[in-house]
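Give me the fold.
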Amino acid sequence: MLLYITLGTNDLARAKRFYDATLATIDLPFMGEFDGEIGYGPSGAESPLVWINPPYDGKPATVGNGSMPAFHAHTRAAVDAFHAAALAHGGSDEGPPGLRYSPNFYSCYVRDPDGNKLSAVCTAAE
């Protein structure tokens, strides 16, 4: 089980606008800013599940080739909303919402404004 994930950014304010809108669609609201990092997690969580920050080494954030967090969405509508919010807030499309791989794997793929690839997935039968 993962404790948290960290995604790099070169523009924290721009990333906050993107992630505030996008992660809220899958019940991961903004939890706060802590020492130049922003965190998102489920309501009532003790600490964030997703951290967004400039790299600690002071070098520019770069995209991890082959890296992609896939976020759980409770409904297919949440996957649709995640995709729409990402595109409306500076993200780019990497694969529109739809069924893939199995009859209940409904997902979408986007890139955030820094180029990090993200997915939202609903595996519930609808």
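The helical segments are 12-24, 76-88.
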